[in-house]
Design a protein that fits this description.
The chain has three helices and seven strands; from the N terminus they run H-E-E-H-E-E-E-H-E-E. The protein is of the alpha+beta class. The protein folds into two domains: 2-51, no CATH class; 54-131, Beta Barrel (OB fold (Dihydrolipoamide Acetyltransferase, E2P)). The protein has helices at residues 2-7, 36-51, 94-97; strands at residues 18-20, 33-35, 54-68, 73-78, 81-88, 104-113, 119-131.
């Protein structure tokens, strides 16, 4: 949204009245014009959204169901939050990342929440494994 707002024509740009943005794979859809009015709407949305974000520090318990080792993030799914929370970790936790898959963990750190106060993103400071995944029973009666 920020990029589109910055690219949108302004009253000062007299030569440009519309700008069309497209991406690969979207050839069957005609690109919508980015106009001066679009720029105003985007700016209002950006101003309003930033005023409706909540920040804080907390600990979030849940089961780690997805890990992106390249992007240094995982998803923590718990009963306290319906959609799960994206957790971003840094190099300190890189070695621990592989072992937390399917574990119940407590991820502590600063978070950002949307207007509904549902936490969406946590910058992880600490990861505690609360419960390891249950081991499967031996299929051969062992």
């Amino acid at each position: 949204m920020v990029a589109a707002q910055k690219l949108a024509p302004t009253p000062r740009s007299k030569a440009i009245t519309e700008l069309f943005l497209s991406c690969p794979g979207e050839s069957q859809v005609a690109p919508a014009a980015l106009t001066r009015e679009s720029g105003k709407i985007l700016q209002r949305s950006l101003d309003q959204a930033s005023g409706q974000r909540f920040r804080g520090t907390d600990a979030f318990e849940g089961v780690v169901r997805e890990i992106d080792l390249d992007a240094l993030r995982f998803e923590n799914r718990g009963a306290r939050y319906q959609l799960g929370i994206r957790c971003i970790y840094d190099e300190r936790h890189k070695g621990q990342a592989r072992e937390i898959l399917d574990c119940t963990v407590r991820a502590s750190g600063s978070y950002e929440a949307a207007a509904d106060e549902q936490p969406r993103l946590v910058a992880v400071e600490r990861i505690e494994i609360l419960q390891r995944p249950a081991k499967q029973m031996g299929l051969l009666g062992q």
